[in-house]
Amino acid sequence: MIKMIIVDIDGTILHKNKIHSRTIEAVKYAKSLNIPFVIATGRNITTIKPIAEKLGVFNEGHYFIGQNGGQVFKYLKNGEFCIEYTDVLDNEVAKIIFKKAKANKIKVFAYSEYEKHAYCTNKMAAFTTFMKFKSKRQKLLSIRQIDQNSAISKCVCFGNSKNMKNFRSSIDELNLSIFDFSYVSNAHANIEINPPGINKAKGIKYICDDMKIDPKDVIYFGDGDNDIAALEFVGHGVAMINAKTKVKSHAKYITDLPVQEGGVGEYLFKNIFKK
């Protein structure tokens, strides 16, 4: 019996900034059955909010998993949010990442634990402008300022394939959690870096422990590299049909329809709600 539904955002329920009506209907139906609906994403608190609003799960005190499992929080009924935990990089490790990135001609955009700030390698780069817009960060800082400001919770790194391969090799010894990045098309040359041991399964375990739900009674939908741990952790891991082969190989089930055709909603109605 499914006791909790968890979904990724980009490529899973969201396509070209739209959520299919069938998926929204499924969320409403799950709520009518009192089945908790949780979002698990690489996004941050600010950029999760509009998705939560579209799905009708904002300001209801539900759990959300952000930054690839590096953060768990709730939007409260008064419009505020309550952070359960946030994992951050050690400042010295963050400095090493930036140093290695510069040496390998890799651009870095790093999320500060403080929602309004970000660190970057080049304020004038098109990548930085793109990420500042996507993340809704208001102020850009230099890594040299980190000891006087908030720690880094996640880095997004951009560069060509050869440089990225060299960069990844240079930081292997740091044992960081590294995932392909969802927003860009050339994913193998763009990565997200989280503190060691971070993945969405960690966030799911935290929520399951608190709500006393067995992970085998949880269904999870995802399409990306950062969804693999979650797909394996829950009892009902479902990969999107539009996911890469690597991701599908870690799932127990696959949707019949892609994200743009409401694959999540169709799967829930057909296989879980039996409607």
From TrEMBL:
Keyword set includes Hydrolase: yes
Annotated GO MF terms: magnesium ion binding; phosphatase activity
Hydrolase among keywords: yes
UniProt keyword annotations, A-Z: Hydrolase
Pfam families: Hydrolase_3 (PF08282)
GO CC list: cytosol
NCBIfam families, per database record: Cof-subfamily, HAD-SF-IIB
Name of the protein in question: HAD superfamily hydrolase
UniProt organism field: Mesoplasma corruscae
Classification lineage: Bacteria, Bacillati, Mycoplasmatota, Mollicutes, Entomoplasmatales
Gene name per UniProt: had
